[in-house]
């Protein structure tokens, strides 16, 4: 894959996180038990950033957790190598909470479906909401985000790469396309 276009830089990502934090607070004013859970690997970074933004705005800490959905995937039998399973770290009871599930890119919806199963195995939240940095369309499942940093129409051949300082050394969102002659 080669870079085609840089669609978000560090400032745009930061603005999107703050805007989504405000939207979460507006929608959940009456909710006394919000929590943020990120899908490992970049969703967890974004979840921590969202929780920090919410704390700055409201002056109160929001519980943050990390979900590993590896064993909940519906394509484990199709993977060429054994996947690496990381830890799910949700250090609070989800029972009765409004859980804001966070991921970097929403594409087919299959990752979110797996995450919903993983959360439900932890308990019964009052509600689950979905926040994504980028919604690129092409859904295969009836899943829609509640909060979106950026809607980004793409072709199915393209790839949206979210890079974050904590994991990649830079904050950016890039559209990549296959090299000529490859698919």
Would you mind describing this structure in some detail?
The chain is α/β, with parallel strands linked by helices. It contains four helices and eight strands, in the order βαβαββαβββαβ. It has helices at 10-27, 42-58, 110-122, 165-168, and strands spanning 2-8, 34-39, 64-67, 98-106, 127-135, 147-151, 159-163, 172-177. The strands form two sheets. The protein has a five-stranded parallel sheet with strand order 3-2-4-5-6. Strands 1-8-7 form a three-stranded antiparallel sheet. Helix 1 (10-27) packs across helix 2. The protein is globular, with a radius of gyration of 16 Å.
What are the SSEs and their pairings?
Elements (H helix, E strand, L loop, with lengths): L1 E7 L1 H18 L6 E6 L2 H17 L5 E4 L30 E9 L3 H13 L4 E9 L11 E5 L7 E5 L1 H4 L3 E6 L6
Parallel strand pairs: 2-3, 2-4, 4-5, 5-6
Antiparallel strand pairs: 1-8, 7-8
Helix pairs in contact: 1-2
In short:
With 183 residues, this protein is an alpha/beta fold. The chain is built from four helices and eight strands. The mean pLDDT is 91.
Features of the shown structure:
28% helix; 28% strand; three-stranded antiparallel beta sheet; 8 strands; alpha/beta; 4 helices; single chain; 183 residues; globular
Q: Helices and strands, in N-to-C order? A: EHEHEEHEEEHE
How many helices? The count is: 4
Rounded to the nearest angstrom, the distance between the terminal CA atoms is 9 Å
Strand content: 25-35%
- Mean of all residue-level pLDDT scores: 91
Characterize the main sheet: 5 strands, parallel
What level of helicity do the residues show? 25-40%
Low-confidence stretches: none
Largest sheet: spatial strand order:
3-2-4-5-6
What's the total number of strands?
Answer: 8
Radius of gyration, in Å, reads 16 Å
Structural class: alpha/beta
Shape: globular
